[in-house]
Amino acid sequence: MQEFDPSQYAPETVAIRAGYRRSPENEHSEAIFPTSSFVFANAAEAAARFGGESPGNIYSRFTNPTVRAFEQRLAAMEGGAACVATASGMAAILATMMGLLRSGDHVVCSRSVFGTTTVLLNNYMARFGVDVSYVPLSDLSAWEEATQPNTRLYFCETPSNPMGELVDIRALSGIAHARDVLLAVDNCFCTPALQRPLDLGADLVIHSATKFLDGQGRCLGGAVVGDAERVGKDVYGFLRSAGPTLSPFNAWIFLKGLETLHLRMREHSVNALALARWLREHPKVTAVHYPGLEEHPQHMLAGAQQTGYGGVLSFEVAGGRAAAWSVIDATRMLSITANLGDAKSTITHPATTTHGRVAPEQREAQGITEGLVRIAVGLEAIADVQGDLARGLGRLT
User: Fold this and answer.
1) What is the pLDDT of residues 164-187, one digit of tens each?
2) Which of 244, 324, 368, 377 could make an S-S bridge to 272, C-beta 3.0–4.6 Å?
3) pLDDT less than 50: residues of the chain
4) CATH assignment, 263-395
5) 3-state secondary structure string, the chain?
């Protein structure tokens, strides 16, 4: 089979064809290699593999053909030279920080990140002597002012969870590189189908493959994409030693998910925009947060650095937690779960789920109020999603 060159093909084709080499069985669909270890022809070959003198499979903690196919395909889709797949999205963030940071380093992180990311930084990375400062995501001057001589990494989500806030990636990468700082972007909400941070100057892209890359809520996984040195050696070295490894079966699931990623992300975006516009006009909704709306403060930026607005939005209702829970509990079709990126629409109350472990003052600074509801819009008929939400909104006085 001739080697597939991703540079010669469109992104939709790369998502289907890149990264896989057929086995001698000549299978058409990618094979799953559920094996813990691999056999060597002789002792010399084993020694050469373990010593890094020759490429090839060694042990599935850090070399597996199915996992490698997923890594190579996602790297090609993001425009990176290397990818390291991990057991979850949080494992990807952990591997990045443990692989690239050391005691005494400083991280500047946007305050509008997933709640568990904050917990990881505050409760665990701090134990290893890594300090962190939090800044408003879109305030470029705040990133500059927070940078210290020992700052090693900028970390952000754009769009953010759950408020849909953005940062100008190209501008932030310029600030970072002028200070010899790495920029890592969590691209979970957009995926490479809608946004390619490396093209905009980022050094690292983080994924929770559990979300849109899978697309059907089937399994856990994560990934880090970047260059051959930092990701291909440093992050990979942590994975090899510490073992937050993606299973071959989950890698195969993600490979299948990538094949339909562009189609799904376009439809998620269409549905989310339709729902956001419907919610905006509803008399019981006090605010809608979605970058696809023209009144969103960063609507123009979203249009410039993304090719779609994504499938996640949030909205607010008067009456705080009681009102938000009333809306959620009245739904019959929407799935009450904190996961997102599924074909099924999901609904959750961020203040008590995804960001429940974040200090109240931090939630307030992020705009995560008690009356905020987040919806990850799926692939159902949008009229059915609207009808289900209308039940709960109709309960409010």
Assistant:
1) 999 999 999 999 999 999 999 999
2) 377
3) none
4) 3.90.1150.10
5) CCCCCHHHCCHHHHHHHCCCCCCCCCCCCCCCCCCCECCCCCHHHHHHHHCCCCCCCCECCCCCHHHHHHHHHHHHHHCCCEEEEECCHHHHHHHHHHHHCCCCCEEEEECCCCHHHHHHHHHHHHHHCCEEEEECCCCHHHHHHHCCCCEEEEEEECCCCCCCCCCCHHHHHHHHHHCCCEEEEECCCCHHHHCCHHHHCCCEEEEECCCCCCCCCCCCCEEEEECCCHHHHHHHHHHHHHCCECCHHHHHHHHHHHHCHHHHHHHHHHHHHHHHHHHHCCCCEEEEECCCCCCCCCHHHHHHHCCCCCCEEEEEECCHHHHHHHHHHHCCCCEECCCCCCCCCEEECHHHCCCCCCCHHHHHHHCCCCCEEEEECCCCCHHHHHHHHHHHHHHCC
